[in-house]
Structures are given as structure tokens and as C-alpha cells.
From TrEMBL:
It is an enzyme of class 2 (transferase). Belongs to the class-I pyridoxal-phosphate-dependent aminotransferase family. This is aspartate transaminase. Pfam families: Aminotran_1_2. GO terms for molecular function: L-aspartate:2-oxoglutarate aminotransferase activity; pyridoxal phosphate binding. It catalyses: L-aspartate + 2-oxoglutarate = oxaloacetate + L-glutamate. Residues 31-392 form the Aminotransferase class I/classII large domain. Keywords: Aminotransferase, Pyridoxal phosphate, Transferase. Its EC number is 2.6.1.1. Gene3D superfamilies: Aspartate Aminotransferase, domain 1, Type I PLP-dependent aspartate aminotransferase-like (Major domain). SUPFAM superfamilies: PLP-dependent transferases.
Amino acid sequence: MPFLSDTLARVKPSPTIAVSTKARELKAAGKDVIGLGAGEPDFDTPQNIKDAAKAAIDRGETKYTAVDGLPELKAAICAKFKADNGLDYAPAQVTVGTGGKQVLYNALMATLNPGDEVIIPAPYWVSYPDMVLLAGGTPVIVEGGAETGYRITPEALEAAITPKTKWFIFNSPSNPTGAGYTRAQLKALTDVLMRHPHVWVMSDDMYEKLTYGDFEFCTPAEVEPGLYDRTLTCNGVSKAYCMTGWRIGYAAGPAGLIKAMGTLQSQSTSNPCSIAQWAALEALTGPQDFIASNNAVFQRRRDMVVDMLNAADGITCPVPEGAFYVYPSIAGCIGKTSAGGAKIVDDEAFATALLEEKGVAVVFGAAFGGSPAFRISYATSDDLLKEACTRIQDFCASLT
Ligand SMILES: Cc1ncc(COP(=O)(O)O)c(C=O)c1O
């Protein structure tokens, strides 16, 4: 009898974490490596948020809380949805978990039966397909290629829907591409969903506040109120508030679904960290001005990286609307050979050779279901980004 479960055999470890680990190992071995794999802001958590956590400890807020979130935090989340998205949710329609990841996982675990299909646009955040598999469902990948700016078309969504479709996962701005859907582009997708009342929508709005220029964020339940009763709107404090380590995410949706997710959480992790919840309350209700100043830095870096990558031989890099990733196509590099003798047969070969020959760690596109390309996280210093892009230009110039 095998010791490990069949469930585990269905999933693979996160490739983005694998890249960061490899870059760290090479660095520890004395190699000059620039890691561009991390999916977290390089800015520290704002001081008022840290102070709120310290005050919570001093007040003795160190006990179990309500399983799916403090009432004070839920009230702040309701206010956030109203103010930012025009969405009315009561506290019983809100759940708080240990990061956005747990919230998404709870929703899938609470709803998927064997054979249920989940539509996932590609390139996708690495965890979606594996979470679906863990929950016993079947991921159905819909390609959003470089020619559509890494967005799926309404026709492709329509074609992917079957009687077994339970969820459509939507993520804008996207990890890994940074692509954001305009209101009109999203409306075209929600029009399709309105024709299929059995399909639920899981909107992962994790990068809502990280958008640049005149791009305006929008979310499905707001764009199409007819979807409100079958949409789970997910968000969290990890990215916008520089709180990846604190592990607080949240979602709002129909009360029955929220209750089921709470039941699951009550028998797995119970409440998210009490102290982190008080910190998240301060994040949502305290000063928000640092977000704009962080975004100005991100936008400057995005523009520099896109310009430098587009100047590299064989690379084409679209300008993303949000998040802190760029997703250049390397179609022009495929079939070439590196100075070190590596055959660039695909994006994994490109990323491996780039790391070994130039010490730049990026995540290859196949990990996100979108090839041939790679993802750069620009949540690192301007100097490191400039050096990394120079090395990528040198690497591309050396390909023959
Ligand atoms: C698209 C997307 N959703 C959800 C998450 C999970 O966020 P958290 O760290 O709050 O679990 C991430 C983190 O990388 C993400 O990129």
C-alpha cells in the first residue's frame, strides 16, 4: 500500500517557488545571481499596520477569533467592497482566510465534485490548476495568447463551457502577464456567462490596486450585476499593502457558499492569525496614500524593463496594465543556440541557460501555461532590474 495519497500524485510543487529556491541556492554557493522570480512587493509593510499589530498583541488579542474572521474586519471588508467596487455585501457574505490562496482553495474544496470542470484562462497563476486537481475537479484551460494581449476572447470562453462547468476563474490584472481587462472586454465575457446560468465566477482581484496609467480596474459582479448571485469576489491585503507574510485574504459572495467555506476552514486551520487580522483591519481602514507612491515606483520600473526587453534580440514585450510582472515573448529566440552551447528548444531551456550563463532567474512560460515566454517580477530595485535586463540583452545577442 503506498504511503502517500493519490490526491498528492495529482499535483506538482509550485514552479515559481522552485525558481526562487534555486536562485537562493546558487547565491548561497557564491554565484552572482539576480532573482526575478518573487511574487511579492519589495517594499516593507507600512508602519501604521505594524503598529496596529503590536497594539493588538499588547491588548491581548492573542486568542482564537471567529473562524472566518473578526466582526470588525468583516465590517471593514464590506465597506471596502462598497467603496471600491460598488458591491453590497453583508458580513454573513464575507469570509477571511490565511491568505488569498486559502480562500480560493476553500471555495474549490467546498464546491467541486469529481468530473466538475473549472475554466482557467492561460497564462494562469500557477496554483489554479493544481488547486482544482487537489479538490478533485478538472481544469479546462482556455488560451489567451500574445496576439490578444494575453486575454481570452468571448468566443473561446463560450466554446469551453460544457454542462459540467462549475466555475470560471477570472484574474485581472493577471499574474503572470500583468494584463488587465477593460470594462468593455470584461462585459463581453460576462455576456457569455449570462447565457450559462450554471457557471459560477471566481474573480481573483488580488492585484486590484496595482494598476498603472489610465487603466481602470473592474470586477465581474460590478460589471454585470446579474452575476452577483453566482460570483465569489476574492481579494486580500498581501500585494497592495505589502503584507505577503501576514497571510490574510478574503472573499465575498452568496451566504450559502461562504458558510460552506467557513465549515471547511473550521475543520482545517480555524481562524487566520488574530494579530494579522487586526493588522489587516488597519490596512483597509488606515491611510491609503502609500499605494499611489508605491505604484509610481512600480510603473517607472515597468516602463524601464519593457523598454530594455524590447531592445533585446528576439524578444517582444507588451506593456502590462497592472500587477508587478512583465511577460515577454521569446518566439524570436526559439531554435537558436546560446554561447554556452545550450539549444533554446523552449522557454524552459531559455530560462535554464539564462540562469546558468548570465545569473538571471526568471520563471519560464510553460509553468503558467503560456509559451514561449517568461515572467519577470519587477518588484525589486531599479539597479538590479537594469543589470538583469542588460544581462538578458547580452544573452539574447549571444544567441546564434
Ligand atoms: C493571482 C494571485 N492570486 C492569489 C495569490 C495569493 O495571495 P496570498 O499571498 O494572499 O495567498 C497570489 C499570490 O501570488 C496571486 O498572484
